[in-house]
Amino acid sequence: MEAMKRTALLALWSLASVAAGAESGSIPPPSLDAPLAKGGTRSVVVAGGCFWGIQAVFQHVRGVQSAVSGYSGGAAWTAHYQMVSLGMSGHAESVQVSYDPSRVSLGQLLRVFFSVAHDPTQKNRQGPDQGTQYRSAIFFSDAEQERIARAYVAQLDQAGVFERKIATEIAPLAAFYVAEAYHQDYATRHPDAPYIRINDAPKVERLRVEFPDLYVSPKK
């Protein structure tokens, strides 16, 4: 009975989170973006709630070569789940997205991030998860990333795309620490877990429906 109650509460939280954001398909592309260009692999680190869902979404995006769960924002000695889960480490559960800039742009990745990966208007929480470790954040590694991220947030806020202002933190990337092995590919390995079915699988489905040109099926 308690498990059923928890599942019902998770469903309500998930629906409330989606309702608080923009309507489906209403988020415009960024006015400022980096052009598609050859140049090896690039990466950006983003955070938006539990890293299981963020990782799952970006693993289905065209041009993404890898999406790795980890921690950013705090010190090396606190970069493990037992410390981060306390909410006092300074870390956010993050995902390092490595991508081919000739196939997908940073702006396209951020559009997915703001559209379907999470609700960027929630501060220090995401759905049923609460605490600074679940904050929305973009950790930039160079001036171009910062410029594109800040311009896109300003664009979306000015257009009133969301009911509330975007709460996403934009900060320089000091370091990215890879999370424990059991957190990697969690949604893929546990598709029937109630948390994944309620909170994360719908995000991947929204990606498929709203961005069919960017969606790719999981690799076998």
Structural descriptors:
220 residues; alpha+beta; Peptide Methionine Sulfoxide Reductase, Chain A; two-stranded antiparallel ribbon; 7 helices; 8 strands; globular; disordered N terminus
Q: Mind sketching the topology for me?
A:
Elements: H1 2-20, E1 42-48, H2 51-58, E2 64-72, H3 81-84, E3 92-99, H4 106-117, E4 125-126, E5 129-130, E6 136-140, H5 143-159, E7 169-172, E8 177-178, H6 186-189, H7 194-210
Parallel strand pairs: 6-7
Antiparallel strand pairs: 1-3, 1-6, 2-3, 2-8, 4-5
How is this structure best described in words?
By secondary structure, the chain is of the alpha+beta class. The chain has one domain (2-210): 2-Layer Sandwich (Peptide Methionine Sulfoxide Reductase, Chain A), CATH 3.30.1060.10. It contains seven helices and eight strands; from the N terminus they run H-E-H-E-H-E-H-E-E-E-H-E-E-H-H. The protein has helices spanning 2-20, 51-58, 81-84, 106-117, 143-159, 186-189, 194-210; strands spanning 42-48, 64-72, 92-99, 125-126, 129-130, 136-140, 169-172, 177-178. The protein is globular. The protein starts with a helix and ends in a 10-residue tail after the last helix. 43% of the residues are buried.
Q: Give the strand content.
A: 15-25%
Low-confidence stretches: 1-24
- CATH architecture, by name, is 2-Layer Sandwich
- Look at the structure and name the CATH superfamily: Peptide methionine sulphoxide reductase MsrA
Count of individual domains = 1
* Largest beta-sheet details: 6 strands, mixed
If helices are DSSP runs of H or I spanning 4 or more residues, what is the number of helices? Answer: 7
The largest sheet has its strands arranged as: 7-6-1-3-2-8
Looking at how many chains there are and whether they match, the oligomeric state comes to single chain
Number of strands: 8
- Average pLDDT works out at 90
Q: Classify the helix fraction into a percent range.
A: 25-40%
Q: Topology as H/E string?
A: HEHEHEHEEEHEEHH
**What structural class do helix, strand and pairing data support?**
alpha+beta
What is the CATH C level class, in words?
Answer: Alpha Beta
Give the overall shape: globular
What is the CA-atom radius of gyration, in angstroms? 16 Å
State the CATH topology: Peptide Methionine Sulfoxide Reductase, Chain A
CA distance, first residue to last residue: 36 Å
